[in-house]
Amino acid sequence: xxxxxxxxxxxxxxxxxxxxxxxxxxxxxxxxxxxxxxxxxxxxxxxxxxxxxxxxxxxxxxxxxxxxxxxxxxxxxxxxxxxxxxxxxxxxxxxxxxxxxxxxxxxxxxxxxxxxxxxxxxxxxxxxxxxxxxxxxxxxxxxxxxxxxxxxxxxxxxxxxxxxxxxxxxxxxxxxxxxxxxxxxxxxxxxxxxxxxxxxxxxxxxxxxxxxxxxxxxxxxxxxxxxxxxxxxxxxxxxxxxxxxxxxxxxxxxxxxxxxxxxxxxxxxxxxxxxxxxxxxxxxxxxxxxxxxxxxxxxxxxxxxxxxxxxxxxxxxxxxxxxxxxxxxxxxxxxxxxxxxxxxxxxxxxxxxxxxxxxxxxxxxxxxxxxxxxxxxxxxxxxxxxxxxxxxxxxxxxxxxxxxxxxxxxxxxxxxxxxxxxxxxxxxxxxxxxxxxxxxxxxxxxxxxxxxxxxxxxxxxxxxxxxxxxxxxxxxxxxxxxxxxxxxxxxxxxxxxxxxxxxxxxxxxxxxxxxxxxxxxxxxx
Length: 525
What we know:
Helices cover 34% and strands 22% of the residues. It is built from 14 helices and 22 strands. The strands form six sheets. It has a seven-stranded mixed β-sheet with strand order 14-15-16-13-12-17-18, sandwiched between helices.
């Protein structure tokens, strides 16, 4: 398959082909080869230096409003090429149209959000953090905390499940901050990331070196990082440990943001009854989270907690919803759930289900239904599987192993306090959702779960039509989580800019601080 096109990397301000045969990207439904990628032979040192010195300098010379306008122009380029991105997503990611939209349109929406937010910062080139504080009795000498764009590069090492959104949710606040970006997409689905970067670079919107993409092996990337650079990683906890122990982070103190494994949960109010509004909302959301992007979301629901008396009713209701999910080739209009991204992921999900079954019973197994326009022996299609246990307090693996696919486990609880304790056994998650009609219970749950989750998503009947979804990450809300989830923070509105700025205290006279403030704006997260 060496006659397949080799996608160019964009590095040091120009397209560059890697050497060698490279890695073939496949259609996860048909197994057909699509394109090749390779990072072999690239001069990474040159690329990182060019990004810092050329791209970084050009970005920092702009105001926040100018960089915001630049993001707005990027949005227009991406919107003009949406059809091509959907075709790539279908071919290389195996996603149905609505799942491709979560990734593609979600990324474009996030860019647009930061373009609008950045416009409000105006002509400033630096951010003021808080008010001036006197250093003594005489007010003439004061301290002012300032946020300045870091004079380095932002390296993004991204996961395979969101090749569009995973890029732009990081790149939007980085570029708005004035920091150049080098993205290393996961190889299996790198085509969409590469195409988007190439389209934006070809449009000459950004300064040369402001946006780069390296496809293929990540070997040597971390070695290029210097003290003022930052690295953001989304992926497995195993790879996260390698990144944290790399000399760039451990010795050179490169700022590091990690999003890793997450056993996200859904909690039904103990006062709920089978078939009532809260019950139905949970059932619908669990089924949706299991099937959107074939369960390949870091925010997907993995553990579902219901009162013991509702265990059987919940199992039947969720199973009935899942039974309607047709699985197979996303090109077939009758298909509602496409494939995992690769046979490697297929094998990983099957192995994960086997581990969970040691502690759980099978409540619904969609694999009994035939695939649509897809061969089971070739494709990476996996049908939804709902597992369950009536004794989650006795389980270990169920609270430790995340199966990254259309898999969730229903768990019975006996008291509100026990439910919180069981949820916290996930040791830190990105999101927990709560389903109730009782505002007092919702408030208690938010306070109980907040310290172990990056986000608590509360769904009640009055917001059923407007809520954005358990697993949908919105740019105005925090994305990240403590403990097992990686301990990182992304997005959260303007809070995202903090990762790409350095805080310093300027101690000076009132006159000097007045002069500094002339080119600054107060930072409001």
